UniProtKB/TrEMBL annotation:
Lineage: superkingdom: Eukaryota
Keywords for the protein's UniProt record, in alphabetical order: Magnesium, Metal-binding
Lineage: Eukaryota, Fungi, Dikarya, Ascomycota, Saccharomycotina
Binding site residues for Mg(2+): 132
InterPro entries: RraA/RraA-like, RraA/RraA-like_sf
Name of this protein: 4-hydroxy-4-methyl-2-oxoglutarate aldolase
Essential cofactor(s): Mg(2+)
SUPFAM superfamilies from the UniProt entry: RraA-like
């Protein structure tokens, strides 16, 4: 399989695979988390058998009292095609246990999805609550978030940054708090299993190259298992050939 190089080709390529396939490759490349961003729920699904893929277009909300000025232009009117809209909060408004956010207002709603879809974005990931569940689903526009709500963001929050790194607080294995950074331009891959971020770095060509090989090997393992072979033996055999 030809390994893509332009971001357009990479997005088309990644749409053939699941976030699990991407995580397998990142694991193989030394990323223990596999790029998984935990605790997000897929409140509006992708089409069956499809992943939502795009480059992160990031938006940072903060309380209205934050000293930073509000961004003048509405973030939603500058969403680039083939992006995934990723909306976050400062670390001090995040929690490592449910509901993962201290903000009870929704940070995103159906009109935002309508505009994002019109601008040819491929999905939205909200590190907070969303509202208007039926509207995202009726649009068939994929959305992930930590939870749901009923109030709009404007009474509590303002946008203070667009296309800046977003920090996401999560619970770790050895530490109570770990921080994942989603950088603008990272590839975001999501489906019903969850959301993975894949950095656009020097390791990317190798990560992409491994994905179809590993999927092919696991297809062979599946056939073996159906024919009665022990799983561990078959996994070792086919994965060693990659
Ligand atoms: O109005 C808002 O600020 C959020 C919302 O409900 C929408 O995007 O539909
Ligand atoms: Ni709304």
């Amino acid at each position: 399989m030809k390994i893509p190089t332009s971001s357009k080709e990479i997005i088309i390529f990644l749409k053939q695979f699941t976030p699990c396939d991407v995580s397998d490759s990142l694991n193989k490349h030394g990323v223990a988390s596999g790029g998984f961003i935990p605790n997000l729920i897929n409140f509006s699904p992708t089409a069956p058998g499809e992943s939502a893929v795009g480059k992160a277009y990031t938006v940072l909300y903060a309380p209205k009292s934050d000293p930073r000025p509000a961004v003048k232009n509405a973030y939603i009117d500058s969403v680039p095609p083939d992006s995934i809209v990723v909306i976050g909060l400062p670390l001090d408004l995040q929690t490592t246990t449910a509901p993962y956010t201290k903000v009870n207002n929704a940070m995103y709603g159906g009109l935002m999805s309508t505009r994002a879809q019109y601008s040819k974005a491929n999905g939205s990931v909200i590190f907070g609550r969303i509202r208007d569940l039926d509207e995202h689903n009726d649009l068939k526009y994929p959305v992930w978030s930590y939870g749901v709500g009923t109030s709009a963001p404007g009474s509590l929050l303002k946008v203070v940054g667009i296309n800046i790194p977003l920090q996401v607080k999560v619970h770790g294995l050895s530490q109570d708090e770990e921080v994942i950074t989603v950088n603008p331009g990272d590839y975001i891959i999501g489906d019903k299993n969850g959301v993975v971020s894949l950095p656009d770095d020097e390791q990317l060509p190798s990560v992409l190259e491994y994905i179809p090989k590993r999927v092919e090997a696991d297809t062979k393992v599946s056939q073996d298992i159906k024919n009665g072979k022990p799983a561990a033996e078959s996994q070792k055999f086919w994965r060693s050939k990659i």
